[in-house]
Amino acid sequence: MPAGSEVPGICCGAAEVATIYNCLAERVGWVSWQPLSKRGSGSASKQSMLEDGVPPHLAAPLTGWIQAVLDDLFQQHISQENTFSIVNSHARQIAARARISLSPHEEAMYELAYAAEREGGQALLDTVDATLSMGVSDLRMRELDQLLLDGGSAWNVADDGNGLQRRVEQTAVEALRTASVAMNASPHLNAAWEAAYGRHPDPSRAYSEAIKAVEAASIPTVLPGAQGAKATLGRVIEALDRNRGDWQLAIASAGVPSRITPLLGMLRLLWQGQTDRHGGSSPTVPIAADAAEAAVHLAVTLVQWFESGVVRRAVSP
């Protein structure tokens, strides 16, 4: 984006230091609090942006949060003779998951948080993520989520509480929760979301799981029974395209049920966009992060359409 340019209708000023992502973050309220000196400044200052790493103002609070979790564990086992051994073992397992080096001569429960802070921002975030993966109380989970929100972090606690994920606009999160009610598609949708927005994103897996989620939702409707046993999304598209007149959408167009042309366009976009898997004359291209995220959100919509009956058999006149 050229220096001094604006993003019309999204945010104002300081575009040279703002990505569209950060402008949107400010617009939809992901940054819920700003220091007094920055309020009403009329520009998107750096302090109002979502922080991808660990800025100085979050380092000490996150270090304190890790230590508080270990202190909680100590209190839970305080009546046992091997309390220190239990908590030190827990801390060393967190360190192993986060790739943090600890001294063999120190108490790990006291060293972990500060060793992570010394190694730098990404190491500290990985340690917070690993701490969550080992299990923490609901209180500590909520405390961390609020801390990250107040500090303007690009990360928040995932819905299952087992790690951090990139902050996403709340309506998109609610759409995922609604679509995840679908039993067949739910594991794939959740895996796709984690692969797209987790601390260690895997765009290829996110895209693949997004397709599997749509397959799980669409095949029982379009190719029920034995004919769908080994079906792929490609076969679903072929079946719908071949029998367009047999299907309709719940959304009305000019007072009558819509044709499925928009649905086919969405399905083809998802299927053909998996550039790292298709052979033939097309070159294999790695899946970009933004493409994977778009695929996941498209899959959420498609799963909801199939599971809720938006896509349905046409009614004979």
Description:
By secondary structure, the chain is mostly helical. It folds into three domains: 1-42, no CATH class; 56-165, no CATH class; 170-313, Four Helix Bundle (Hemerythrin (Met), subunit A) (Up-down Bundle), CATH 1.20.120. It has helices at residues 20-28, 56-76, 83-98, 108-119, 121-133, 138-150, 170-179, 186-197, 203-222, 233-242, 261-272, 289-308; strands at 155-157, 164-166, 247-253, 256-258, 311-313. A three-stranded antiparallel sheet has the order 4-3-5. A hairpin with a 6-residue loop joins strand 1 (155-157) and strand 2 (164-166). The protein is elongated and about 75 Å long. Residues 1-31 and 41-48 have low confidence and may be disordered.
Extract low-pLDDT stretches. Answer: 1-31, 41-48
Beta fraction of the residues? 5-15%
Tell me the number of structural domains.
3
Quaternary state of this entry equals single chain
Strand order of the largest sheet: 4-3-5
Overall body shape: elongated
Query: Helices and strands, in N-to-C order?
Result: HHHHHHEEHHHHEEHHE
The beta-strand count equals 5
Provide the fold topology.
Layout: H1 20-28, H2 56-76, H3 83-98, H4 108-119, H5 121-133, H6 138-150, E1 155-157, E2 164-166, H7 170-179, H8 186-197, H9 203-222, H10 233-242, E3 247-253, E4 256-258, H11 261-272, H12 289-308, E5 311-313
Question: What tags apply to this protein structure?
Answer:
317 residues; disordered N terminus; two-stranded antiparallel sheet; Four Helix Bundle (Hemerythrin (Met), subunit A); mainly alpha; 5 strands
How would you summarize this macromolecular structure in one to three sentences?
The protein has 317 residues and is mostly helical. It is built from 12 helices and 5 strands. It is elongated, with a radius of gyration of 24 Å.
